[in-house]
Amino acid sequence: MKKFFKSSYFAIVMAFIYVPVIIMIIFSFNDGDTTMVWNGFSAKWYSDFFQDSTFLKSIITSLFVAVISTVLSLLIGVSAAIGLGRTKKITQRKWFGVANIPLINADVVTAVSLMVVFLISGIQFGIFTLIMAHVSFNVPYVLITVMPRLRKIDPALLEAGRDLGAKPSQVLFKIILPILKPAIITAAAIAFAMSFDDFIISYFTGGDQTNVSTFIYTLKKMKPVVFAFGTILVGVIVITIVGWNAFSITKEQKLQKIEQLKKGIYKTKQLSKLQKEQAHLQMLINNNLVLTKTKKLNLWIKYFILKMHISIVSSWNYDKKITRLEWKRNKLKSEISREQRYYSRLKSATKKAQKLNKQLAQTTDVKRAAKLTIQIDKLNEKIEILKEEIEWIESRDQAQLEKAQEIALKIQKLKDDLKNEDKPSKKIIAWYHKKIKYLEEWKIEIEEGKNKYKLRMILEHLKEISERKYESIRLLTERMHVLKKLVFLESAVAAKIDEQILAETNAEQLEHLKAKKTQLLNDYNLFLTKKLSKVDLKIVGVMSKIQKEKTKLAPDYDEDVKHTKGFFARTWKIGLVSILGIASFTGLTVAYVMNNIYDLVVANWGDYIDRSLITDFEKRYDVKVNYQEFDSNETLYNKLYTFDYDVMVPSDYMVQKLVSENRLLKLSDKEWAEQINLENYFSPQDHITKETISQTLIDVMKKSPIEVQGQKQNITDYAVPYFWGEVIMLVNPTESNKKFLADRGIEYNPATGQITNPEQLSWHIFWEAVEADKRLVLNFDAKNLFMMAEEVRNQKANVESVEDVDANYKLLEKLLYKSNVSLNSDEIINKVGTGNFDFSMIYNGDALAGNKIYNGEDSEAETEQVSEDGKTHFIFGSPAKQHGPGKVEGSNIWSDNMVVSKTSKNKFLAIQFMNFIIEKYQDISASQGPTAPGTSAIDALIGPEGAYEKYKDLYIPSKNGEAFKYNRTLDDYLMDKFNELITGKIN
């Protein structure tokens, strides 16, 4: 196993990185609405993506912000890097550390800090604040990318430029920026990617601007259209990388071609081959010879084996060994030259110190004298260091000389001892010779110097490697030359004909053979001549191409003539890139501006409408709508600090909160009530009405009065329903779960799945189910969870005291901290749809959507209960257990409502939008799932051939429930306890 991981480590890492991308690409072609089950191949999501104007607007916003913030970040970051480069190192480190704080700071902290700064400054949240926020976190990335490259710039280059008369601007643009170019390009790529991809900071500082990350985050359900966008994005990145690499390779090949043209070796191999073929053909023509191939199989086998051997030897890669030796050679050369430079540097430093001392003696300016004194002290310190280095080198050389003399004496002694040996054996003589040779090599190494000796040995090794390869190829080539003569036989064309002529006795036949011989000779000569002509043409073509490339890429210049490129030749590339860049940015700016000139701003829950309806509304009234999305009521409320909306769709309790803060337009006032196309909601209308609201919903909404300026009012005075529904209990109809319900006396209708005796059903069954090891999937909402506990304890949906919240907290602790309980947001639909649960607390609309996924044509879930209509119905119901007189468990009946801001600049258009939604109740509900509030829409959806005909009992909320009420103190405390509750919970 260890060996497997060791050999497959890189493949495992690559799989970990790229498998999710591959899965995303595959599911972008999924025919179904879910991202959990494959429903067949389809490209419809790509079509939907290009038709989704809101999605495209968010991408345009992301691109616009990313481009501008990248340019500004580069200007600030590169300027800051160059400025820091001119300061002392200690100053650089301090400021560099300060600049990097945003990199290690949490994004959410940065986002909230920026939001507070903009609020205090009184700046209108929008594109300006979004760009400034992006610049704030991009500048550090530019700094950390550019600074390392800047530190590598040799100060001698800058001094040389100044010595040659360059102005500071010329030093910047001709030396510094060209050297920093690769780092600047890298920094631009990082800044652009970070800006385009940012979510958290954009979410808090964007105001009315929605970039692509924010748009995707606020979607209620993750659909394959997001995968289609991701696939397109991956494709763009791949094309960009491949294109850039192709450009780099082409550029590198061009430089190699220029170098080959200058050296005169361009296409020499091809030309040499053609010239050899030309010479061979000419020889055959001159000598009237013909090539014939041998029929001996053994010779052909030897020929192909030898040819393969030559190919292998020619391809033997000595590069790694040669590169290592060359690196050692360069390192040794560098060490040797560094030691040699000590003398020249000492001489230069001494001369400069004398010059500065002379200037110090002549100056009368105190500041000038102090500056010169500091420079002289630094030079004296440098001179001392150089003297110490030189002293060490000289002492080392002296020690080596003494060591070499000592070794020489040892060698002489060994030679004398060998002479004095009386009839030494061969073994003794060999020992003496080996010892003497070792000491002689050591003596040479010490005399030359260790580094110089190593350098000489490396050069000899390099030469040996090159000669070895050359000699191997030469010997094999000679063998090939001999073998070719045996395989490809050269013989006279007329040889065989001559043999036939000599063997022929018939005079008439003899003359015929002589005539035929001449014809064959002429035909063969003509064939060879044509072949030779073709080779000549190829040679001319190659030489012409060489000359053409040389004229184009490496022309010969007269050294006495000054050659300069014209202005156009020098600037056309920069000009073309500039024109393309300006044109692209202009187009992007126009697209952004066109998409941000709007008449109405709407804030709605993510994926709460078919966005084609927004386009229909725009076309009908010839207006532009800025359609914003949010993921929670609290998010919407926080966004109101940074931006004003015209129409919003908050939930019932948030409507109450906004009304209590006097933020909403009172729609029941006659001025507005007469314009809203509802008959039974505000007051009877004189004009033709199109819709009535469900009386059940109206009754629930009116049970939550609001105190406004000392008067009690209902949210029905300020809000028009958008969707409504109920929090229900959903059970997967497995045999085990059905038995679990039956043991508790709970019955249901197999045809619809609806529990028929809700008076036996209590939310406490969840606590029992978790102890029985059932999988619980709960809606991730603070109010719903505390509602469930409050219903168990006090049979109420709303808590009424801090003590209630604390008691519910303790009860929920026992449930939520179990490993078989998970909290889910919108992904609960997919979990239910795949049957990956036993019990669930869920909105009825989400339960319906999950039930439809579960019954999909390609569903892989094994159905255990199929009704007469051929559908598998989950068991569902709303608790109605009686705990005493007037104490009956219930649930939350919620509603999301359209409201108009009191500060709206286009209230009449806002009312028109509300009327448009009322008109489209049926379409919106059919596409999104939650219950429509209009009675005619409900009737159409659950009637014959309606979208929810088979699930009508699940579609219509029960009457046994109440709406959440707003309580400022308790709501804040409840949210704090909820956050504390989920801190230790791992889904």
TrEMBL record:
Membrane-crossing residue ranges in chain numbering: 9-29, 59-84, 96-119, 125-144, 225-247, 574-594
Membrane association type: Multi-pass membrane protein
Domain ABC transmembrane type-1 positions: 59-244
Pfam families linked: BPD_transp_1, SBP_bac_1
Top-level taxon of the source organism: Bacteria
Subcellular location: Cell membrane
Coiled-coil regions listed: 339-421
Cellular component terms (Gene Ontology): periplasmic space; plasma membrane
PROSITE patterns: ABC_TM1 (PS50928)
InterPro entries cross-referenced by the UniProt entry: Bact_Polyamine_Transport, MetI-like, MetI-like_sf, MMSYN1_0195-like, SBP, Sperm_putr-bd
Chief site of localization: membrane
Sample GO molecular function, one term: polyamine binding
Record has Cell wall biogenesis/degradation as a keyword: no
GO BP of this protein: polyamine transport; transmembrane transport
Sequence similarity: Belongs to the binding-protein-dependent transport system permease family. CysTW subfamily.
PANTHER family the UniProt entry points to: PUTRESCINE TRANSPORT SYSTEM PERMEASE PROTEIN POTI (PTHR43848)
Name used for this protein in its record: Spermidine/putrescine ABC transporter permease
